Amino acid sequence: MPAVFDFDRYTQLFNDLGAAGFPAEMHGHLVGRLSAGARYDHGTWLNVASELLDARGTVPEAGKVQLIQLYDASLAELSGGGFDVTLLLPDDSATVDHRTQALGQWCEGFLGGFGLVEREGELSEEADSALHDFAAIAQVQTDLEESEANEVDFMEVMEYVRMAVLMIFSECQPEADKQAKPPAALH
């Protein structure tokens, strides 16, 4: 995983700023906006990120660079034409309970970001269904014990979210962008 998606770096930034938000939720919000077709210059994205951080202080220059790198890397992955999309979540050394909670926060952020962007046209039934699934995932109740079954369940849900994001992103891009790459299929 590229360093730009190192969850611990963002957790540290949030802690240093006394931020009320969560790193996974902020990234989900960003990806939700990008998936719905929004594009921002770096200054606008930093303003959006600052609101999401809900911090007591201002973001230091190093934090601004980190947030800009997250924006650029997320957009590059989504529009890259492959099946690469990284969710900003704790790594495998974290408990399955902690990772599941972060995935719920990520989905909540995605829905919030996606919903703020004005789009033309209706979503396909498949995309609408995926958004409903994200809403259910956002409501996840955690207190999971470490087990192989819970680990497998987490990995399957995370992979579903990744593929659903690619499908939603592909569906919601302007026509000129759609012709540049084939749509991602959700299996």
Q: Could you explain the architecture of this structure?
A:
Pfam families: UPF0149. InterPro entries: YgfB-like (IPR011978), YgfB-like_sf (IPR036255). Belongs to the UPF0149 family. By secondary structure, the protein is mainly α. It has a single domain, classed as Four Helix Bundle (Hemerythrin (Met), subunit A), CATH 1.20.120.740. Helix content is 64%, strand content 0%. It has eight helices and no strands. It is globular. The two termini are 24 Å apart. The model is unreliable at 176-187 (pLDDT under 50).
Q: Could you say how many structural domains there are in total?
A: 1
Structural class: mainly alpha
Shape: globular
Tally of separate helices: 8
Helix content: 55-70%
Provide the CATH topology.
Four Helix Bundle (Hemerythrin (Met), subunit A)
How many runs of DSSP E, i.e. beta strands?
A: 0
Identify low-pLDDT runs. 176-187
The span between the termini is 24 Å
Radius of gyration: 16 Å
Largest sheet: none
Q: At CATH's second level, what is the architecture?
A: Up-down Bundle
Mean pLDDT: 88
Question: What's the name of the CATH homologous superfamily?
Answer: YgfB uncharacterised protein family PF03695
Highest-level CATH class? Mainly Alpha
Strand content: under 5%
- The arrangement of helices and strands along the chain is HHHHHHHH
What's a concise summary of this model?
Belongs to the UPF0149 family. It holds the Pfam family UPF0149. By secondary structure, the chain is mostly helical.
Task: Name the descriptors.
187 residues; mainly alpha; Four Helix Bundle (Hemerythrin (Met), subunit A); 8 helices; globular; disordered C terminus; YgfB-like_sf; YgfB-like
